[in-house]
Write a structure and sequence with these properties.
Elements lengths: L16 H5 L5 E6 L2 E6 L3 H19 L8 E5 L2 E4 L2 E3 L3 E5 L13 E2 L5 E5 L5 H14 L4 E6 L4 E8 L2 E9 L3 E2 L9 E2 L5 H11 L1
Parallel strand pairs: 4-7, 8-9
Antiparallel strand pairs: 1-2, 3-6, 4-5, 6-8, 9-10, 10-11, 12-13
Length: about 200
Amino acid sequence: MRKLRAMAQPPKKPATYEDLFALPENVVGEIIQGELIVSPRPAFAHAHAASALGADVGAPFFRGKGGPGGWWILDEIELHFGSDILVPDLAGWRRDRLPKAPSPREPFMTLAPDWVCEVLSPSTARVDRRLKLPVYAREQVANAWFIDPLLRTLEVFRWQRDGWLLVGTFSDGEQVRAEPFDAVEMDLGGLWLEEAAPALSSAG
């Protein structure tokens, strides 16, 4: 009896920038090592933590209010590193490395940031830790933060030549001075939805 040979599967075509345009608007698309990564838009607790952190860091370091300034702080901007396309929740560039803003029509950045922050969710934690963090290391991003709004934790990493060093882990309502923004103390409790609820209700 003649044996049937298994048909070899054709190699998978690497994802391209055009594939991102074909995605629906309610998802976030990234490309890592040729693979198209599609994540749902963040839930409320995730979005709240990212927005609160952007405000806490942006005022003193981006706008220079109550702090030293000297940074560009942007949320959900596309980063293009060769064929890899990443979208961190927040990213920051020191202005001595990026003195002028890019063209207002430029839809992405190719200069690696000095700091990135990823807000973790059950659907994105693996991608953030196992796929995106090595790319940030390759591009020599100096600091990376992971925020988990469900566990209410902040992990602070520093890139070194032999890999990422966990500088510190903070949680709940700690008062934090975390590099590279350790010039200003931050109330970590303001990132969590439950902590912000009394302030929101009293303001209404």
